[in-house]
Structure prediction request, 201 residues.
Amino acid sequence: MIYKELDALNSVAADATAIHFAQEMMAAHLTRAFASSGDVDVLSGLRVKAGNVTAQVDHLVLHPYGLMVVDCQSVLGGLQVCEDGQWLSWRNSHVSEMRSPVHRVFAQASAFKQFLEMKVKQRGFFSKMEMAVLVAVPDKSAIEWPPSGALSIVCNTAQVPARILQRVQDCALRFGGRGIFHAEHRDRLAEFLCAAHQPDP
Prediction:
């Protein structure tokens, strides 16, 4: 089920427009895949605060075994991931360094988990629940990986729904049963998060 769509874009800056477009493409894939799903719920463009913690997530996925944070990248050309973890983007022979989206998505997930632990009455409930991450790059962006190989948490936008379903299946095999995050729990959390959402000023 889709619990939250993206907020309307409130900036005309080129970088904001590019990021919003990448998020819209990701939201469209997630809607096609999970709009009628009974096991996977989606909230897009979520921003919540508790104390000095602000958690901003491009797309949050809830499923019977846990949560997943999906971060969108708006690169227009190719990508290279170096052996030391440095990310480079290039377009028309121009190469530039970029902040690692892997570090960014883990920081997003960590902040969101802190928010949940501060706001949810069942202390420790989310600390024992899986919170996975994915980095989505545009479908037209080729990725050049280092000799050590590709990162399993990075994929093209169109591959994200399949990665989510694979994660759910892996969790089902690992944990068995229906999971601890039942539909009624996900529903309550989604409604709480929608009410707590604070659009980015």
Observations:
- The radius of gyration is 17 Å.
- The CA atoms of residues 65 and 73 lie 26 Å apart.
- The chain has a mean pLDDT of 88.
- The longest strand covers residues 53-63.
